[in-house]
Design brief:
There is one protein chain. The chain is α/β, with parallel strands linked by helices. The chain has one domain (5-187). It is built from 6 helices and 7 strands; from the N terminus they run αββαβαβαβαββα. Strand 3, helix 3 and strand 4 (90-93) form a beta-alpha-beta unit. The protein is globular, with a radius of gyration of 16 Å.
Length: 194
């Protein structure tokens, strides 16, 4: 994978300090933890209802020392911001084309020694009633756990709800994962259905 701000010497500790201070001044608290031995995972970030989700997710990742990559729609990777977004850990996704992103992600995960890949399960900031299954199939195919990340704008909390190991029964597993998000409010809470 390409280098990011999460593995850039000097910048990484500086951005972590800025993240800690910014979250504290904004009244946010970080909850949960990342298992010390976790080197690879698919991290879901829910609810995804606002453009504000990205900066808060990045700050929480710095606080928790999570070296993340995140998937985003390709339109935010256009010049002049492409290199900046890539350096921030972004991976452009062209949602208009049918491509095998799941298998490509599995292959990348298998080739990497360490990788936290963020995939928003809703696939969009708009309200959806059913989560997309790509995150699940990437985790199951790569045999890595799902790290359940969250942002609760109502309580000003963000962090991790724990890890989940897939069983192969996507419908049952996703229903169980979604149950962990009961009571969590996104920035636009009406756009998140649990």
């Amino acid at each position: 994978m390409h280098p990011t701000m999460f593995d850039t010497p000097v910048i990484r500790p500086l951005l972590r300090a800025i993240s800690v201070i910014t979250l504290r001044l904004a009244g946010w608290k970080v909850e949960g933890e990342i298992p010390a031995d976790l080197k690879k995972c698919v991290m879901i970030a829910a609810p995804h209802t606002s453009n504000w989700d990205l900066p808060f997710t990045l700050m929480i990742a710095f606080v928790m020392k999570a070296p993340i990559y995140w998937m985003g729609k390709d339109s935010i990777f256009r010049p002049p911001f492409r290199h900046l977004m890539m350096w921030m850990g972004g991976l452009p996704i062209d949602r208009s084309k049918a491509n095998n992103m799941v298998q490509a992600s599995i292959d990348e995960m298998n080739a990497s020694e360490q990788m936290f890949l963020i995939v928003p399960p809703e696939g969009t900031r708009s309200k959806v009633d059913k989560w997309k299954t790509g995150f699940y199939h990437i985790a199951h195919g790569a045999d890595v756990p799902i790290l359940m990340g969250f942002l609760d704008f109502e309580r000003k909390r963000g962090g991790f709800l724990g890890t989940f190991t897939t069983t192969g029964n996507a419908d049952a597993d996703i229903a169980l994962i979604r149950s962990h998000y009961a009571g969590i409010s996104g920035k636009k809470s009406s756009q998140f259905s649990q």
